[in-house]
Amino acid sequence: MTVVVLRVLIVVAVLLGWEIAGRLANPLLYVPPSAAVPALRDLLALRSYPDFPEHLLLTLREIAVAYGLAIAAGVGCGAALGLNRLVGRAYGPILAALYAVPAVVWYPSLMLFFGLDAASKIAFGFLLGFFPITLAVLAGIRQVNPQLITVARAFGASRLTVFRKVMLPAMLFTLVGGLRTGLALAVIGVIVGEVLGSKAGLGSLINHAYGLFRTADYVALVLVTLALIVACDAVASALERRAQRWTHLQ
Amino acid sequence: MTELIVVDRVDKRYATSSGPVDALRGVSLGVGAGEFCTLIGPSGCGKSTLLGMLGGLVHPDAGRIVVDGRPVEGPDPRRAATVFQDPGLFPWRTTLENIEFGLELQGVPRARRRAVAQELLAPLGLRDFAAKYPRELSGGMRQRVAIGRALAIDTPIVLMDEPFGALDEQTRLLMGEWLLDVWRRTRKTVVFVTHSLHEALALSTRVIVMTARPGRIKSVIELPLPYPRAMESSELVTLRAKLWSEIREESLRAMGET
Amino acid sequence: MTRRVRLLQAASVAALLLLWEAVARAGWVDPLFVPAPSAVAGAFARVGGPALGGLGDTLAKTAVAYVLSVVLGVGGGVLLGSLPRVRGAVNPLVVALYGMPKILVLPWIVLLLGFGTTPAIVYGTIHGLFPILVLVTGAVRDVDRQLVTVARAFGARRWQLYRTVVLPAIVPTVLAGMRLGIVFCLLGVLIVEMFAGVRGMGHVMSSLANGFQAPELFAATALVSVASIVIVLSLDAVNDRLSHWRGDAR
Questions:
Q1: What's the number of domains chain C is made of?
Q2: Could you tell me whether strands B70-71 and B62-67 are parallel, antiparallel, or unpaired per DSSP bridges?
Q3: CA end-to-end distance (rounded Å), chain C
Q4: Do residues A76 and A190 both lie within one domain?
Q5: How far away is chain A from the Cα of C144, in angstroms, using its nearest Cα?
Q6: Is C89 within 8 Å of A6 when comparing Cβ atoms?
Q7: Which residues in A lie closer than 8 A to residue C33 (C-beta atoms)?
Q8: B59 CB near a chain C CB, below 8 Å?
Q9: Given this model, what pLDDT does residue C249 score?
Q10: Which of C217, C215, C221 is nearest to C42 (CA)?
Q11: Which pLDDT tens digit goes with each residue over C86-104?
Q12: DSSP code for A156
């Protein structure tokens, strides 16, 4: 009980501190909660940014496409690397090396190639989401207990059946974890791309508000974006739990 | 003769999710200097708790424990060293470094620590393993390092909580023989917790049998017998039967509880 | 097997470069967007100077941010890991901040601190801090209880417990965190440079992209990628040397 009380106290203290500090210092810059809430209302009532829904939808579309591509490529590459020993040992280290490069270094090249439109954001989101999914598929395949496969083969299962009935359930947990991380990163990729330079989307609105010193609107937009991210992760989390239950029933 | 360790009407209670539980109630016993005293009893009888109290890691709710005339208030590495069932060797330290651990805590200079640890290697049978890490040692070896660590600080008392519990039977038997050898040479006072009747009878000068929870002292069996012990002798066979009948009664009570 | 692996890797890279060169020369792609490898090689000489200068700048800021991240992350992690009640209260906050895309606060940081080195260092620190903090907190919390019992039984006082048990026990995790942290710090610094036009590699690449100087951009991207890979591989080597007592269980 004390822990919950402590948590609530901390949240209250932070909000209070923010309010006081905001008022004492420059409220334009620090945007105390009392200024952020009305700005949020304005945003949701489409007063501050009338075309807010279009931007939101665009961002969601970019995320969906980026994630879809990341899944397709990620599962494909992960399977190729995992199922063939030579391919895995040859390209695995290359993949790991690329993972050591901060993804944002690719962004200027993507912007040059795709321009400022949605395509560069989708490409960047795809790039970010692709890695964790590939790595998860690879790890998932590798951690399947080979004994299980031997047993299945001994009972006369074909290669396809082995994949469907043995490997897939065995690696489902790792796979779903990777899919969840992939979604989180795809979302971040799209938003980073939009903030760093775009004509439309939530990130561009954030940029716009920042550029015009509309700090309260900026805070409101950030809160909405955070809500979007939390919602995406909540959906992913729910699907993960569904997948866990399914594997146990199997 | 006043005894080295005196336990005087000690109680210990634990709070659990299903209400408070009495681990020990009114436990009184004494251990003389130079003895090899075994605590034996069914699971959950509180023998490990009692040992923890002797080592100052657990505090009694009532009663007191006096060692060498002074009450026990906390762990005192000048008074007693402990060996646990899980040897708890530091994986990042070599055998020598693990043995030195107690000395290091006491601020003994490096050269002296190293010398003490080196001297212990031969009696521990670890001469070729001085620079090895725990993951390179077998279970029996690790326990010997743990015992070496306890011996290195040269305390009058050594407390051992089922030190051979995690080992296979053959290793256990050999380790028991080895421990006896070490004890007879160093003449320390040993308090030894075990489940094993064989160990109690083969190693101890005194066996203390505890009841099922809440733990009390059921009986004390003196074993003024010479070493090494002929376990097939009629005397020991009778003693074993007697010991088992006492413990069996308590074990059944403990099992009935669950 | 290793020889075949090396052969496959070399052959793939060579084939990719040749294909790329052929495609570029045949005119199937616009050289403005996709320069031939030969053009990129040539660009190294032209862009070398400013690129290396920018890289040096970026790495300097990253180094400062990195030191701060490690000190705060390890210190904070040890603190949080040791105090279960504080941890219980603060943990949700930490996890939330960890999962939040830091880019959302970047405009605000730039508003607050202006353009220049300071926001880059601050943002880089924030980026690198959280993974280290979370990892170290977990490691301190998960220290083998038996080792602590042993140390206490041998009379260790509080500070001795930390010196002889907790700190050596968390070394592998600290190293893992440090390896993760460097990529995150570099990422953060680059993002600030791209966003706020601050001196450094991020800005160099951004400008090259805006100026449609594709060969130079590719060259610069390759440069910073190689630098990053070298840094991470060096940290891995250090990690290996310090963890020899763990053997294969890394």
A1: 2
A2: antiparallel
A3: 24
A4: yes
A5: 24
A6: yes
A7: 112-113
A8: no
A9: 43
A10: C215
A11: 888 888 888 888 888 899 9
A12: T
In DSSP terms, B14 is beta-bridged to B21
β partners of residue B210: B217
* Domain range for A17: 1-30
Chain C nearest CA to A7, separation (Å): 5
Residue A35 lies in a domain: no
Q: Say which residues have a Cβ less than 8 Å from residue A46's Cβ, sequence separation at least 6.
A: A52, A53
pLDDT, residue A240, reads 80
Confidence band, pLDDT 50/70/90 cuts, at residue B257: low
The 10s digit of each residue's pLDDT in A181-205 is: 899 999 999 999 999 988 899 999 9
Contact A109 C221 (CB under 8 A): yes
CA distances from C134 to A103, B126, C206 (A): 22, 40, 32
Summarize pLDDT for B11-51 with one digit per residue, the tens: 999 888 888 888 899 999 999 999 999 999 988 888 999 99
Residue of chain C whose Cα is closest to the Cα of A94: C9
- Quick one: A141 and A229 in the same domain? yes
pLDDT at C123 over 90: yes
Please check whether residue B79 is in contact with residue B54, taking contact to mean a CB–CB distance below 8 angstroms: no
Q: How far is C5 from chain A (nearest CA, A)?
A: 5
Same domain flag for C24 and C135: no
How far is it, in rounded angstroms, from Cα B79 to Cα B72?
Answer: 10
Same domain? A236 vs A182: yes
Mean pLDDT of B164-188: 90
Pick the residue from chain C with its C-alpha nearest to A210: C107
The one-letter code for the residue type at A120 is S
CB-CB neighbors (< 8 A) of C233 in chain A: 97, 100
Model pLDDT, residue A166: 79
The alpha carbon of residue C247 is apart from the nearest alpha carbon of chain A, in Å, by 20
C184 in A contact zone (CB under 8 Å): yes
Picking from B49, B45, B50, the residue whose alpha carbon sits closest to that of residue B255 is: B45
Structure token digits, residue B63: 């009663």
Q: What is the pTM of this model?
A: 0.83
Q: Which domains does chain B possess?
A: 1-79+158-258 (3.40.50.300), 84-154 (no CATH)
Query: In terms of C-beta distances under 8 Å and separation of at least 24 residues, what long-range contacts does C237-240 make, across chains too?
Result: C238/C175, C239/C175, C239/C176, C239/C179
